[in-house]
Amino acid sequence: MPLLILALIVLGALCVGLGIRVYAVERALRSAAGQLREREKTGSSARILMAAPNSSAEQLISAVNGLLELRQAEEADYCRREKALRQQIANVSHDLRTPLTSIIGYLQLLEGDGLTPGEREEYLSIIEGRARALQSLIGSFYDLSRLDGGEYPIARERVDLYAILSELVAGFYNDLTASGLDVSVDLAEGLPLVWGDAAAVLRVFTNLIRNALEHGVGTLSIRLYRAGDTVVSAFSNGAGGLTEEDVPHVFDRSFTSDKNRTSHNAGLGLAIVKALAEQMGCRTEASLEGPEFVIRVFWKTAGDR
Fold it and tell me: Could you tell me which InterPro entries the record lists for this protein (predicted)?
C-alpha cells in the first residue's frame, strides 16, 4: 500500500508539472499570437518575444521572426524601387520634354515669312539633330526595359576587342578631332579573345565614347590592355564637375552630374553599359583618379589566338 501511495503521489506531481508546462507553452503561444496580430495591425516588423522559455516554441517563433524580417526587407526594397521608379519617370519626362520643346520652337520659327533660305536650312538642321537625339533616347529607354526583362539576346562567343574598338575609334575620327579634347588611343596588339557578344561589345564601347565626348573635359584616353586573366578596356576623361560622391552612382539610370538637370542625362548610356557588361559576365568599375574620371570593363579571356 505505501508503494501505491508513493506511486500516486509521483504520478500526481508529474501531471501537475506537465500541466504547468503545457499552460506555460500555451500562454507563450497566445502571447506570440497576440504580438503577431498587433504587428499585422500596425505594419511593424519588430521581433516577437517569448513570454516563457520553451525550445519547441522558440523554434516556431524564430521561424516567424525570420518571415517578419523577410517582409521588412521586401517592404524596404519595394519602397526603394518605387522611389527609383518615380525618379526615373521624372527624368524620362524631362529628357523627352527638352528636345520636344526645342523642336516645337524651331517649327514655329519656320512658320515666319521673313526667313532667309539659309535660316530655314539652319533651323531644319537643328530640328533634325533634336529629332535624332530624341530617337536615340527613346531607343535607350527601350533597350533598358528589354535588359531589365531579360529580353535582350546575348550570345556567348569569342570576341576580338582590338578589332571592334580600333574600327569604332576610326569611325568616330571626325567626332574625336572636332571635340576639342586631347585624345590618346593605346590599344595593345596580340590580345587574347574574350567571351562576349559582338553587338553588345560594340554598344558598350559606343556608349563609353559618346559619354566621354558629351561630358569629358580637356582629355580623353582610350586604352585596351591585358591584366592577368582579363582584358581591360579603360576610358578616361577630364572629370569636370564630377565628385567622389557622384562616382558610386554613375551607372544609375537616373544619375546626372548636373543637379539642376540643365544638361543631358549621363546615366542612361552608362546604365546600359553596366547592364550589358554584367550579362556578358564582365565587371565594370568607375573611379575618380585625380582630375580623371575612369571607367574600366574587365573582360574574361577565351584563350589566346
Answer: HATPase_C_sf, HATPase_dom, His_kinase_dom, HisK_dim/P_dom, HisK_dim/P_sf, Sensor_HK_Regulatory
What is the pTM (predicted TM-score) of this model?
Answer: 0.63
Q: What pLDDT, in 10s, does the model give residues 268-295?
A: 789 889 999 999 999 999 999 988 999 9
Lowest-pLDDT range, 23-27, 110-114, 128-132, 255-259? 255-259
Spatial CA neighbour of 299 closest among 200, 184, 206 = 200
Q: Which three cell numbers stand for residue 285?
A: 568599375
- How many residues are present in the chain? 305
Closest by CA position to 233, among listed 176, 268, 267, 185:
185
Task: Determine contact, residues 224/236, Cβ cutoff 8 Å.
Answer: no
Q: Per-residue confidence at 259, pLDDT binned at 50, 70, 90?
A: very low
DSSP 8-state assignment for residue 184: E
| Alpha carbon distance 198, 155 (integer Å) | 8
Task: Quote the cell numbers at residue 143.
Answer: 533597350
CA neighbor of 230 nearest in space, from 270, 271, 193: 193
CA distance 260 to 146: 29
Q: Report how far residue 50's alpha carbon sits from residue 37's, in angstroms, rounded to the nearest whole number.
A: 15
Helical H segments across 187-262, by residue range = 198-215
- Model confidence over 6-46: pLDDT tens digits? 666 666 666 666 665 655 566 666 666 666 667 666 666 66
CB burial class (10 A; 0-12, 13-18, 19+) of residue 296?
Answer: middle
Cell numbers 593605346 correspond to 186
Structure confidence at residue 3 (pLDDT): 63
Question: Which residue has cell 578589332?
Answer: 163
For residue 34, the Cα-to-chain-centroid distance in whole angstroms is: 41
